Amino acid sequence: MEVLVGEIEGFAGALTLTVLLLGPVLGVILFVGLTISILQAATQIQEQTLSFVPKLGAFSVMVYFGGRWMLGQLAAYL
Question: What is the model's pTM?
Fold first, then answer.
């Protein structure tokens, strides 16, 4: 029974770390996508790549500036 409790605590820690690492990145990508979608609706431009490229750029910027912190958090968990 003690092994099961330890595994559950480890799983909960892994989920917490996942939310901690991916939450800010997904939040920024969501904001960029929503902003681009509003602009597309307002201007009636229906180009799919117009929303993909800014999201990719936002992801790249987030990983560039937050990658060292993310990797440190992951290394501390392992």
Answer: 0.77
Give the tens place of pLDDT for each residue, 5-51. 777 888 888 899 999 999 999 999 999 999 999 998 898 888 877 88
Q: Which three-class secondary structure state does DSSP give residue 18?
A: helix
Distant-in-sequence, close-in-space partners of 29: CB < 8 Å, separation ≥ 6: 55, 58, 59, 62
Q: How far is it, in rounded angstroms, from Cα 53 to Cα 72? A: 28
CB under 8 Å to 37, separation ≥6 — which residues?
Answer: 51
Where do runs of H (alpha helix) occur along 1-78? Answer: 2-43, 48-77
Phi, psi of 74, rounded to the nearest 5 degrees: -65, -40
